[in-house]
Automatic annotation (TrEMBL):
Keywords: Signal. The keyword Transcription does not apply. InterPro entries: BUG, Bug_dom1, TAT_signal. This is Tripartite tricarboxylate transporter substrate binding protein. It comes from Cupriavidus basilensis.
Amino acid sequence: MNSVKLSRRYWLCTVAGLAAVFALPLAAHAKTYPIKPIKIIVPFAPGGGNDVFARQLATQLGLQLGVQVIVDNRAGAGGTVGTDAAAKSAADGYTLLLGHTGTLAINPVLYPKLPYDARSSFVPVAPVASAALVLVVPAASPIRSFSDLLAGAKASPGKLTFASSGNGTGGHLAGELLEELANVRLLHVPYKGTAPALTDLLGGQVDLMFSVIPSALPHIDGGKLRAIAITSVNRSVRLPNVPTVAEGGIKGYESSLAYGLMAPKGTPDSVLKVLTAAVAKASETAALRDALKAEGAERLSGSAADFAALMQAESAKWGQVINKAGIKPE
């Protein structure tokens, strides 16, 4: 009797042990990604809109995925250096890129040769945010509204100057698009960065500027700059009283930067699904929404495929503007 009981107990223990052994690979497989820190490359210097979005996104993704997510700033050549580094990274989901309209849609048609291919070097993970530009003039300027700007530009073609952070940048192209759609002529004055352009605008050396919202906000709030228009389709959540360019009578005008998380081409579908789901959950958090709002941006909805389609459409749109205006990189 005792022998039978022992045999049965031995058999039960053996079965339980085998079940545990066979279960181990399944549990291990369920946690194959991520098992180490993830890096998000931001192809610009710290402090800009890309960097702010990326750091808050990294924090929220880390909470969702259970691993550390860090931001790696790789500035240089209008975003080309960092974007190229991401393109040449291992396609394992541990190095990602926060790309945007400039690096993924404009640069490929602006520069005759890039070390990466925006379409074939990456796969989209998820859209992140959309940010407009704000058209600003010095507080002492006689231009008090967008209609004033149009009237002045038509009365004196080529006299009004607009600053930008460089040839082919978002601010430059926003001005070129306005010239085309409003049938006016402005004089473009390129600078090497947003800071020196804003400095001269504040000093009255140039008449106006299409600026990224975060850089202009302190001066708008401080009464040194006047915001006369927003370049997006809808008004900015951060500047709700400022009308859009389209509201000012320029139908079809829209110029925004769309941000999306990208992965190197060849990243496994299973990894992409994990990342896409994590971005979706992170986007629902109040912390990320508040961070975007503070920077004058909004959550960009849609799927990874939608973001890829948007970048293709933006590339075609800005390619036409660049070619028509004969814009060359500096």
